[in-house]
Amino acid sequence: DWADLGDIVGGAVERAARLTRSHTVKVEIDPEIPLLCVDAVLLGQVFFNLLDNACKYSGPGTAIKVWAKKAHDHISVEVADQGPGIPEADREKVFDMFYRVSQTDSQAAGTGLGLAICRGIVEAHGGSIRAESGLHGAGTAIVIRLPLPAVAQVAPEPEGA
Ligand code: ATP
Ligand code: MG
């Protein structure tokens, strides 16, 4: 259905409030982004999973930033944190089911499914998702790219209007 990306992200931030309470969450949504033909519940789950990871794998008091920008044929959404980052060699593997990066220090609990689920949902929308180094080469940034078909530029008139 037609949904507003700001509402989807905002809903996920609200639902994740208990997880993010020791972090500072900043959201920046490009006002140029049109309504999108997406499954808002599933896409909301993607942002919830990414916020969960950002909190679990970065220290309290650090910042988490969600920003979304419109390009001519796609939308980029990024969830960035100031944690230790994901080693280059693991940046593709973390999207595999049950894959978790082994770390010398004890790691937060998890099943290793969160990012695999995110990839499944994003790909079902024709998009892509990858892990990058965060801002200034530190931390993690998960970057989602959603295609912007011309048909998604304008929402249809509501029925009976
Ligand atoms: P689940 O999400 O199923 O509870 P999980 O968080 O371990 O468990 P994923 O969300 O799929 O699973 O993440 C896979 C692995 O990628 C994590 O175990 C962690 O090692 C690494 N990872 C994910 N997000 C981050 C991040 N923001 N910073 C550092 N490492 C991360
Ligand atoms: Mg996770």
UniProtKB/TrEMBL annotation:
Function: Member of the two-component regulatory system KdpD/KdpE involved in the regulation of the kdp operon. KdpD may function as a membrane-associated protein kinase that phosphorylates KdpE in response to environmental signals.
Subcellular location: Membrane
Protein name, entry field: histidine kinase
Domain of life the protein comes from: Bacteria
Section covered of the full-length record: 740 to 900 of 900
Histidine kinase domain ranges (all copies): 1-150
